[in-house]
C-alpha cells in the first residue's frame, strides 16, 4: 500500500497485523535505518537475537532467490513473530520480494531498506500496490521537518536552543538522520538539562564531522580549488556521505552567495550584504566567502544553482551513477570558479 504522509507516523508506531512486508527507501540512509529499527522493535525487542531475526543481503538472494521467502515462512522456535531484514535492496530483488509476499506459512515481518527509488521503480511499485505490503519514503530532513527533528531531539534532553542556534543547525544538519541526532545529542550533553544552546555552542559543537566535511567541500568548490574539492569528495564518499547530501550542502552555500550578491545588486557593500545573512556567517570562513563574492557574478551564481538542482534530479533517477554525477557537477563548478578568478580584473 502507498501510505499518505499523515499515516506514516502511526504506521511506524504500530504496523497493522496484516502487513507482511515493509519497504523503507530514500536518500537519507540514517533516517531509513532509524525507521527500520523502530518498526523492527514492534516485532522483536532484541534485534541481535539470531533466533528471532534473519539479516540478509542482496548477495544472499542472488545465490538463492527463495531464501527470503523461506525465512519469511519459518516459524520462531521461541515463540512470537520473526523478523527478516534485507539492507541495500534494489529493483534486482523484486522477484525475491514477490516470493516473500506469497509465502503461505509463517507470520514474519519482512523489512527491506533501500536508497532513493523513482516512482517507476519495480520494487517500489510492488510494495505500493500490494495490500499486505507498505512503502515508506525517507527524504532528507530540511526546513520545517528538520526544525522539528532538532527540537524533538533537544527536548528529550530538556535542552532549548536560541533562534540563531536553531537557524545555524537547520543549515548545517539534515544530510543523514543518524548523524543529525548524534550531533544534537553531543550538543545537549554539553549544555546540560535545563540549559539553552547558543549560536556559539552550536558553531563549536555541531557539524564537526560530516557537516564540517560538507562545508569544506562547498568552500573548495566555490573557491575554485579543484584538487581540494576532488580530495574532499573522495574522502567524504569513503566516510559514507551520499551524493545528494553533498549537492545540497553546496547548493545551500551558493544560495547564501546568491543572497549576498542580490543585496549588493540592490546597493549594499559586500560587508553590508554579508552582515544581513541569517544565520550569521561563521567568522572563520568570512575571508573566503568575501573572495567568492568577487569571483562569482550574480548571473553565474544563478547558472550554478540551476546546475546543482539539475544534478540532484539526475541523482534521484534509478540506475544513475549518483556519485559520478555529483562529482562531475561539483568539479565543473570548481573549474568555472578557477577560470573566473583568473579572468577577474586586478583590484
UniProtKB/TrEMBL annotation:
GO terms for cellular component: DNA polymerase III complex. The keyword Transferase applies. GO terms for biological process: DNA-templated DNA replication. It catalyses: DNA(n) + a 2'-deoxyribonucleoside 5'-triphosphate = DNA(n+1) + diphosphate. Its EC number is 2.7.7.7. InterPro entries: DNA_pol3_clamp-load_cplx_C (IPR008921), DNA_polIII_delta (IPR005790), P-loop_NTPase (IPR027417). Keywords: DNA replication, DNA-directed DNA polymerase, Nucleotidyltransferase, Transferase. It is an enzyme of class 2 (transferase). GO terms for molecular function: DNA binding; DNA-directed DNA polymerase activity. PANTHER family: DNA POLYMERASE III SUBUNIT DELTA (PTHR34388:SF1). Belongs to the DNA polymerase HolA subunit family. NCBIfam families: holA. This is DNA-directed DNA polymerase. It comes from Nisaea acidiphila. The lineage of its organism: Bacteria, Pseudomonadati, Pseudomonadota, Alphaproteobacteria, Rhodospirillales. The gene is holA.
Amino acid at each position: 500500500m502507498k501510505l499518505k504522509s499523515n499515516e506514516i507516523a502511526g504506521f511506524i508506531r504500530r504496523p497493522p497485523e496484516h502487513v507482511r512486508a515493509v519497504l523503507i527507501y530514500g536518500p537519507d540512509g540514517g533516517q531509513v535505518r532509524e525507521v527500520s529499527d523502530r518498526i523492527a522493535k514492534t516485532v522483536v525487542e532484541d534485534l541481535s537475537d539470531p533466533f528471532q531475526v534473519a539479516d540478509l543481503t542482496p548477495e544472499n538472494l542472488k545465490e538463492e532467490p527463495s531464501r527470503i521467502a523461506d525465512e519469511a515462512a519459518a516459524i520462531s522456535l521461541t515463540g512470537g513473530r520473526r523478523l527478516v531484514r534485507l539492507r541495500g535492496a534494489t529493483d534486482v530483488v523484486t522477484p525475491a520480494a514477490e516470493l516473500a509476499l506469497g509465502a503461505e506459512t509463517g507470520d514474519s515481518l519482512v523489512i527491506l531498506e533501500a536508497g532513493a527509488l523513482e516512482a517507476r521503480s519495480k520494487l517500489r511499485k510492488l510494495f505500493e500496490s500490494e495490500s499486505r505490503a507498505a512503502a515508506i519514503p525517507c527524504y532528507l530532513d530540511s526546513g520545517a521537518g528538520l526544525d522539528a527533528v532538532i527540537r524533538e531531539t533537544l527536548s528529550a534532553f530538556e535542552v532549548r536552543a536560541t533562534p540563531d542556534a536553531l537557524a545555524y543547525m537547520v543549515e548545517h544538519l539534515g544530510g543523514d538522520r543518524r548523524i543529525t541526532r548524534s550531533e544534537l545529542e553531543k550538543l545537549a550533553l554539553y549544555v546540560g538539562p535545563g540549559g539553552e544552546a547558543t549560536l556559539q555552542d552550536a558553531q563549536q559543537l555541531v557539524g564537526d564531522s560530516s557537516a564540517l566535511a560538507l562545508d569544506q567541500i562547498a568552500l573548495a568548490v566555490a573557491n575554485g580549488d579543484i584538487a581540494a574539492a576532488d580530495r574532499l569528495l573522495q574522502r567524504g564518499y569513503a566516510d559514507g556521505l551520499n551524493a545528494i547530501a553533498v549537492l545540497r550542502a553546496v547548493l545551500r552555500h551558493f544560495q547564501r552567495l546568491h543572497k549576498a550578491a542580490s543585496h549588493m545588486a540592490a546597493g549594499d557593500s559586500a560587508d553590508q550584504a554579508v552582515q544581513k545573512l541569517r544565520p550569521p556567517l561563521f567568522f572563520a570562513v568570512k575571508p573566503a566567502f568575501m573572495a567568492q563574492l568577487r569571483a562569482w557574478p550574480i548571473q553565474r551564481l544563478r547558472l550554478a544553482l540551476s546546475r546543482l538542482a539539475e544534478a540532484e534530479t539526475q541523482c534521484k533517477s534509478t540506475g544513475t551513477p549518483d556519485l559520478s554525477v555529483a562529482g562531475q557537477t561539483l568539479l565543473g563548478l570548481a573549474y568555472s570558479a578557477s577560470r573566473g578568478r583568473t579572468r577577474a580584473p586586478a583590484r
